């Protein structure tokens, strides 16, 4: 079971080394899932003395005001024999055999992070102590709760400390070790109050009562230690700390522990509780409890690691590999990114992704609707007929019927189809350009602003060229219908011969109002149905041929050669120009680096857990 605490120790050290301190970030945190014991207490609660008693060494900084200004992750490792020593995570190659030097290094490392401003930091210090006189245990010593800031500290530090402590102890995997002095009223303890807020049932809280020997005469802490006045799930543990006089006289921990055992075993009030009192009992209890909690959490930690590994690898895959430094590698990266964009663009058009269906809507709804709105009857108004008939044969009067006038009437009707046809070309162009932007957002192009801009420019330029070709081809379809009318249509027209008319009618009366009105009446009764039938026949053909032209010139070409010109230009670029195209967003680079470190952490943790012998 001792392997379990060592396992968590290794993972916690790896977390700190790779920047996982359990703080709220956009990265997944492994720290929060690891069971730990957080030590919480006020500045005068005797918290430091309890920790030193558990370790059996003087190693913590002392002084007035807020001494602990960074979380101290204290990892105790029991060794069979050998000399006691300490190691800091930030000084991995250095062993400290002098614990006075350990105290100094804690102070110095705190100042390196916070400066000498007496401010606090949530970045922890990792200290490992190897000794035959300790149990395997990990404790997190947090800054002591206070009500008043000292000189050199902002007024907000009181709240900052509370926020830091609460952030640690509110996590469900945190065991709360509450330190409270027996010579103060328990109900006023800030540490007790905060632990109640985050753990109202006391399931995660272990209480330690210090300074029992300093209580007023006639009073004792028996009711608390027996769980009568303030019940927790786990019994309270009483501690007798070294006095200030003992500290000044440098009384060693072995002597202090002996005095503590004697106090509880000989005290009339506490001798019936002596077997579960004292710092040695506390250390063993915490070690055993931590082992049990870790064992119960291991399956959940394994599941979390496996899921997070998959998520990290997926996001890293999406972000892509770091950019190569050589020109060939950069060109390959650009080509791969552009090919991926081209493939996604085709998938939008083909229906694998959304967007291509909008083009279908243009052909099935927008174009037919626009054609139906064309008002051909305006082309057959009397005013228009008069104009077309009189102008039909120029200076030559027509002999039988104004055929050129009929042609002009039909042509003027068909020409109006050009507007809906061109509108279809433009509508499809807009959709194709929208899909360019959409496909860019779904590829790695969004990570490279310059490359994204160049690809979008090249794609839009190609689409603009395709649109112009499509406009020419589509309008040509209408022009072909205008320039050559189907002969069968004319063979069905009645000849405009004046049967039964006045043969002596002057040629100068040929274009009078009566004559034109008579032609108009014949158009309305005989010719108009044939004309409308012919126009509808042309429309039914164009409503099918216009989409074919647009798809052939725009959609098909976009799928085949959207970036052909860009690729040709790319091959002629210099290495410096390729580098400018791959000016990746710094935020993306930082994200990739952070994810890679976090992936390394989770893989290391997975290996450590799998390596534990159950």
TrEMBL record:
Superkingdom field: Eukaryota
Domain GED: 524-614
Record-level GO cellular component terms: cytoplasm; membrane; microtubule
Keyword presence, GTP-binding: yes
Dynamin-type G domain sequence ranges: 31-299
Record keyword Magnesium present: no
One MF term in the entry's GO annotations: GTPase activity
Cited Pfam families: Dynamin_M (PF01031), Dynamin_N (PF00350), GED (PF02212)
Keywords annotated in UniProt: Cytoplasm, Cytoskeleton, GTP-binding, Hydrolase, Microtubule, Motor protein, Nucleotide-binding
Gene Ontology biological process terms in this record: clathrin-dependent endocytosis
InterPro entries named among the record's database cross-references: Dynamin (IPR022812), Dynamin_GTPase (IPR001401), Dynamin_GTPase_CS (IPR019762), Dynamin_N (IPR045063), Dynamin_stalk (IPR000375), G_DYNAMIN_dom (IPR030381), GED (IPR003130), GED_dom (IPR020850)
PROSITE patterns the UniProt entry points to: G_DYNAMIN_1 (PS00410), G_DYNAMIN_2 (PS51718), GED (PS51388)
Major location category of this protein: cytoplasm
CDD domains tied to this protein: DLP_1
Location within or outside the cell: Cytoplasm, Cytoskeleton
Family: Belongs to the TRAFAC class dynamin-like GTPase superfamily. Dynamin/Fzo/YdjA family.
Protein name as it appears in the record: Putative dynamin central domain-containing protein
Organism per entry: Helianthus annuus
